[in-house]
Task: inverse folding
């Protein structure tokens, strides 16, 4: 018995010794941790950016970034550490999605980047950052995180299919009702079987926020500056949401509308669906896929309800870099240098060309290599135009219960498409569900 | 036990405490990593908790009342039960049939034994990905082979069934391996006796083999029962509980409350309820143990 | 004559039967075979849809991508260490406890057994944060011990071994006692050797379980060179598109150790829980 226990303990201890992290604190060089969630080729581009930093700015300043992939959602890991009050193992810099803004915004050791402008080498000014993206990561009056990889929602359409049915590919639909008309024309049926859908889209939280936000001069989803000044207490876009559902019903009634996603990129790229709503971050994927299929396609700005008055633009999607104070000023200074580097026009240019994201630094376009890249990729130009024209008040709402909000909107849209709910009922359903969720959450978090 | 053993008197104290030495390692680990955190969860489920899980005030059973009034959670309970009712019998039953088929050793036994048990080597995420591709309405091999245009995971009427099929597949290898090794352990004499009495294959399987391997089958039933009632992996990876909540399970709901909604009030209460339901199901199985499981083979 | 013919016929029948079983086996293993085939396909073929089983052009490109975009070999080593470590400790801990439940008498045995078994009904996700706090306060973040410590015990394995031990004849244990054999000696020299196949099954299931875990090892490590293979597979994923090829290639590579273990021990496992001789 004793033997076994001691054997087990010895084995365990050896294992732990074997694994004890070797601290590589060489003299003077300050190392700091950067966590990210970039997978696949984006992950490679991220690692390349970090090693470029280490070889250039990092080398000059004697600081070295150590980047670590932390799964597809860094925020859940951050949350665990924050809940366990484990400051020691927190990273110095972390890539977080917009949805997690309150997690870092309310955390005591977060250093708002707003407080850092002008510090260190001071190579980056707040004016360099696109105002709408600054607003995306502003919480309770301060810019918390530095936007890093951003994207925007676009309408992708099949140019060949447009030509085939006599639609003008130079003049793609600008409103949801025009999409309904185009969808009807683009749909190809073989008896009862649809062989080509006119339009493929899911109406989820993100799509709804965009379609609502675009209306008028920009419509927020909820009160308290969309949750950026305080907790959202109610949905404030009833009319706009009703507009979306009403037009969505028209689209559903065409019979050529596919309201769920299977393999969205592939189906669009092979011509199975003639139009679809997708993030600009997929331009590169679609470009690759259509090389094989030979399908000609283009993108246009997201649809409105009334194209003459709807000028809000699209809510900015993507992720940002935030930094934490772990009680070591040298690391804090190093973290800020890294963030300045990541947000610089030059880095953004390389990063965006490698990944298809949109540059958050307004000076990026002035760079020769990036403007050459845009000329070669007209779809990116469209995305960038929409991205830059977006009104700062068009934002995703800051919600800590966005999973359930997403489900409520998604379910209402499916019920609507299947004819179980009218547009009014769908709107009421979403608003009731959301307000219930807000009450429940706010009760515990006042 | 009753037989007198040499130096019995001297050993009494030791014998009294002896079981502790055997049980201590297991219970120390269970205590630290299961009982303590779960006890904390249970006690905190009676409090109002903020988005970081911090205790705010005592509210008694309010979290439980609120969870049980939540129609999406109630639906999730029924989905979990439906999922369990179909996966457990099928995965144990099919594995038993496969074990019967494979019970006799033949030249090619190692080949098909391996093929039958292979699914257990796959992780949930990889299995999910393969089946997602196979069930894809447009790219998938299943619709291509059958010529159907069923939406599978995107249809509220079929989605849970797809998850059941995947789960049965994932469980079958594990269950097969266990039952096969039990069947191989049966006394050849007993099987021969059945042959002499002229029992047919079905009778032999149910009347002779099943009682003899009942401890293993009982273990597998308890094991699958708890795992299936608390299934969340496939649902979270493949459908996120949709479409229209048709594949939401108790634990996927609980998980989403904690991770996506930062609502620990709902998460803790639903965890305790899920625990209670699994407990009841297991107790029912144990009642069956008294009646049907035979250890004195 | 007649017996000969019957024998011949049954031999032919047996051959057909074996062929049927292998076909059945191939059907059951189809998803895995399909995954392996995809790992050799070019992306355009995977996305062409339809019944497309055999790669039109066999390519190793996916394997190249898988091996270059994530340090899979290092991850394999990490997974191997934690899976082996956790399984060995679990085997020791579980068999000790199972022995007590099967052979020793102590007060409230059934209640204690149920309390032990109740742990399988506790949702693992709900104890995650508390366990992180415990492990981090023990200073085990970024260590192999921290990665495997929560897998050191499994009520299911104790249960499984108890079931196996219970079929062991009590009379044999008593006989051993009369020969002056202590409980521990009996456990070590008689009980364990006669239950090798169950122990192996426990070992393999524990190994596969730990090998396939994702969340816990990710949570308690912050260094790329401490990552496990399952994290490696997700690193190949790409949210803006579908990359079946490299992921299936990585999954195939990751399956190799489990399959190796499987082939090595499979014969012993299915040889029977216990050899007939020790049965009562």
Result:
């Amino acid at each position: 018995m004793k033997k076994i226990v001691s054997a087990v303990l010895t084995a365990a201890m050896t294992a732990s010794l074997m694994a004890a992290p070797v601290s590589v604190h060489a003299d003077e060089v300050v190392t700091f941790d950067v966590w990210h969630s970039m997978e696949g080729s984006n992950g490679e581009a991220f690692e390349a950016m970090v090693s470029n930093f280490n070889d250039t700015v990092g080398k000059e300043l004697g600081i070295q970034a150590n980047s670590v992939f932390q799964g597809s959602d860094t925020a859940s890991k951050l949350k665990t550490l924050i809940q366990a009050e484990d400051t020691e193992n927190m990273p110095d810099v972390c890539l977080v999605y917009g949805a997690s803004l309150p997690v870092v915004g309310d955390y005591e050791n977060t250093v708002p980047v707003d407080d850092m402008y002008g510090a260190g080498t001071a190579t980056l000014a707040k004016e360099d950052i696109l105002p709408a993206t600054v607003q995306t990561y502003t919480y309770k009056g301060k810019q918390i995180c530095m936007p890093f990889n951003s994207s925007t929602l676009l309408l992708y359409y099949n140019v060949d299919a447009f030509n085939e049915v006599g639609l003008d590919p130079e003049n793609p639909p600008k409103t949801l009702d025009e999409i309904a008309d185009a969808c009807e024309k683009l749909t190809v049926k073989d008896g009862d079987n649809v062989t080509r859908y006119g339009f493929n889209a899911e109406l989820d939280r993100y799509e709804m926020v965009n379609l609502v936000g675009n209306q008028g001069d920009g419509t927020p989803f909820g009160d308290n500056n969309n949750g950026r000044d305080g907790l959202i207490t109610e949905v404030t876009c009833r009319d706009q949401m009703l507009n979306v559902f009403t037009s969505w019903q028209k689209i559903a009634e065409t019979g050529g509308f596919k309201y769920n996603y299977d393999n969205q990129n592939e189906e669009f790229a092979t011509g199975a669906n003639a139009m679809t709503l997708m993030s600009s971050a997929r331009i590169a994927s679609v470009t690759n896929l259509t090389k094989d299929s030979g399908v000609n396609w283009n993108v246009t700005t997201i649809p409105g309800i009334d194209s003459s008055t709807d000028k809000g633009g699209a809510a900015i999607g993507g992720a940002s870099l935030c930094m934490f104070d772990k009680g070591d000023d040298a690391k804090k200074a190093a973290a800020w240098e890294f963030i300045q580097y990541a947000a610089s026009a030059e880095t953004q240019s390389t990063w965006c060309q490698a990944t298809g994201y949109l540059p958050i630094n307004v000076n990026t376009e002035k760079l020769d290599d990036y403007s050459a890249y845009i000329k070669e990729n007209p779809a990116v130009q469209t995305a960038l135009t929409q991205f830059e024209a977006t009104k700062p008040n068009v934002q995703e709402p800051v919600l800590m219960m966005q999973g359930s909000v997403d489900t409520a909107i998604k379910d209402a849209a499916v019920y609507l498409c299947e004819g179980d709910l009218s547009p009014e009922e769908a709107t009421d359903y979403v608003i009731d569900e959301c307000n219930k969720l807000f009450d429940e959450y706010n009760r515990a978090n006042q | 036990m009753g037989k007198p053993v040499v130096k019995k008197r001297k050993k009494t104290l030791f014998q009294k405490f002896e079981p502790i030495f055997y049980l201590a390692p297991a219970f120390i680990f269970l205590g630290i990593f299961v009982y303590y955190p779960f006890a904390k969860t249970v006690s905190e489920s009676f409090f109002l908790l903020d988005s970081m899980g911090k205790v705010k005030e005592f509210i008694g059973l309010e979290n439980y009342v609120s969870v049980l009034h939540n129609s999406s959670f109630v639906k999730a309970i029924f989905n979990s039960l439906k999922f369990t009712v179909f996966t457990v019998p099928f995965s144990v039953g099919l594995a038993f049939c496969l074990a019967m088929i494979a019970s006799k050793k033949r030249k090619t036994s190692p080949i098909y034994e391996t093929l039958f048990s292979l699914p257990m080597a796959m992780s949930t995420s990889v299995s999910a990905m393969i089946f997602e591709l196979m069930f894809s309405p447009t790219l998938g091999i299943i619709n291509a082979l059958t010529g159907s245009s069923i939406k599978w995971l995107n249809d509220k009427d079929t989605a849970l069934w797809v998850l059941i099929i995947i789960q049965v597949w994932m469980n079958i290898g594990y269950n097969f391996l266990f039952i096969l090794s039990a069947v191989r352990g049966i006394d050849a004499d007993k099987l021969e006796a059945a042959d002499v009495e002229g029992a047919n294959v079905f009778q032999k399987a149910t009347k002779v083999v099943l009682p003899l391997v009942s401890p293993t089958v009982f273990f597998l039933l308890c094991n699958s029962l708890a795992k299936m009632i608390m299934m969340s992996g496939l649902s979270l990876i493949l459908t996120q509980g949709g479409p229209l909540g048709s594949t939401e399970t108790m634990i996927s709901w609980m998980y989403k409350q904690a991770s996506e909604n930062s609502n620990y009030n709902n998460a803790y209460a639903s965890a305790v309820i899920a625990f209670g339901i699994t407990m009841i199901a297991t107790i029912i199985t144990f009642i069956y143990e008294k009646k049907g499981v035979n250890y004195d083979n | 004559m007649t017996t000969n013919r019957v024998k011949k016929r049954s031999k032919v029948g047996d051959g057909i039967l074996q062929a049927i079983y292998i076909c059945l086996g191939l059907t059951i293993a189809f998803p895995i075979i399909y995954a392996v085939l995809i790992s050799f396909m070019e992306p355009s073929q995977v996305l062409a849809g339809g019944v497309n089983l055999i790669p039109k052009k066999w390519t190793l490109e996916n394997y190249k991508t898988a091996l270059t975009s994530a340090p899979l070999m290092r991850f394999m080593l990490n997974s191997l260490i934690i899976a082996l470590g956790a399984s060995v400790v679990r085997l020791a801990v579980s068999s000790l406890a199972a022995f007590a439940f099967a052979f020793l008498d102590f007060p409230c045995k059934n209640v204690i057994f149920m309390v032990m078994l109740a742990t399988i009904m506790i949702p693992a996700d709900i104890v995650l944060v508390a366990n992180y706090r415990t492990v981090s306060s023990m200073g085990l973040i970024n260590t192999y011990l921290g990665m495997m410590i929560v897998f050191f015990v499994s009520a299911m394995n104790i249960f499984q071994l108890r079931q196996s031990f219970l079929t062991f004849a009590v009379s044999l244990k008593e006989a051993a006692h009369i020969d002056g054999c202590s409980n521990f000696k009996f456990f070590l020299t008689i009980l364990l050797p006669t239950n090798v196949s169950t122990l192996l099954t426990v070992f393999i299931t524990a190994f596969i379980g730990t090998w396939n875990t994702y969340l816990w090892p990710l949570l308690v490590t912050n260094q790329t060179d401490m990552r496990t293979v399952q994290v490696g597979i997700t690193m190949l994923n790409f949210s803006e598109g579908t990359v079946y090829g490299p992921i299936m290639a990585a999954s195939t590579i990751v399956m190799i150790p489990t399959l190796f273990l499987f082939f090595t021990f499979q014969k012993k496992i299915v040889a029977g829980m216990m050899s007939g001789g020790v049965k009562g």
